[in-house]
Amino acid sequence: MNKIKKITAISMIAIMLAGNSAFLNDNKVQAEVLNQNLKLSYSPVNPYKADIQSQRIPVGTVIKIRMETPVNTNNSLKGDPFFATIIDDVKVNDKVLLPSGTIVRGSVADVVKRNFLSRGGEVTLYFDHIVTPIGRQVPVFSRISNCVNLSTKGNITAGGGYLNAVSRNLDQGVDIFTRTTAYGFKGGFSNSSGAPVILAGPICFFGGLIAGPSVFLGKSVYALVKRGDNVILNPADRMELTLIQPLDIPLN
Description:
It is a single chain. The chain has 252 residues and is of the alpha+beta class. It folds into two domains: 57-160 and 230-250, Type IV secretion system, VirB10/TraB/TrbI (Lipocalin, Beta Barrel), CATH 2.40.128; 162-225. The protein is built from four helices and 14 strands. The protein has helices spanning 2-41, 162-185, 188-193, 197-225, and strands at residues 54-57, 62-67, 71-72, 81-86, 90-92, 95-98, 103-112, 122-131, 137-139, 142-146, 156-157, 232-233, 238-243, 247-250. The strands form four sheets. Strands 2, 4, 7, 8, 9, 10, 11 and 13 form an eight-stranded antiparallel sheet that branches. A two-stranded antiparallel sheet has the order 1-14. Strand 5 and strand 6 form a beta hairpin. Helix 2 packs antiparallel against helix 4 (197-225). It is elongated and about 115 Å long. Residues 38-48 have low confidence and may be disordered.
C-alpha cells in the first residue's frame, strides 16, 4: 500500500514539473515573438542626424532686404503674411551664408489705422524665419534698424498728428509773411507796379501780416477734421534688419 502511495506521489510531482516546464517554455516563446514584433514594428521616421554642420551669423549683423509683398495700413490686417528678399550677400569670414535672393518671411504684428486730428497710420512688422539656400527654415530674431518713417518704437509710421500739423502750418504762415515783406522792401513790388519802395514795403508787410496768419488758421482748423496719411510699403521698398540674436545657418 505504501509503495502505491509513493508511486502515485512521484507521478503527480512529475506531471506538475512537466506542466511547469511547458508553461515556462510557452512564455519564453511568446516573449521572443513579442520582442521580434517590436523590433519589426519600430522604424524611426526622421532619424536624428548627428553630423549636421552649421555656421553662425553673429548678433549685430545688418541684413539688407527688399519687400516683395505690399503692406499698408489701409487694408492690411494683423497676422497677414508677407515676404522679402535679401539684396546683399551676408558673409562671415568671406564665406557667403545667405546669398542675395534669400527669402525672409514674416507677418504683420500690429496695424493702427489713420484717424482724425491728422493722425497717421502705424504698422509693426515681425520677421519670423529665413529660408536658407538648402531649403531649411531658420527662426530669425531681428529688429528693423533702417527704414523710411521708422519710429523710435521700432514700428513704421506715417507721422502726422494735430500738433505736428499746427507746427507745419505755423512755419508756412511765417514763411508767407517773411517772403511777402521781403519782396516789398527789396523793390520787387515797386518795379512791377511803378509804386515807390516807401509805399511797396508797408503794403507787402500788411499783406503778409494778413495772408500768413490766415493760412495758419485755415489749415489748422482743417487739420482738426482731416485724417492722417496711410503707411504704404510697396514691392521694391528697402529696409535693413539687425540681428538681436545669433543666427545659425545649417550647411547640410
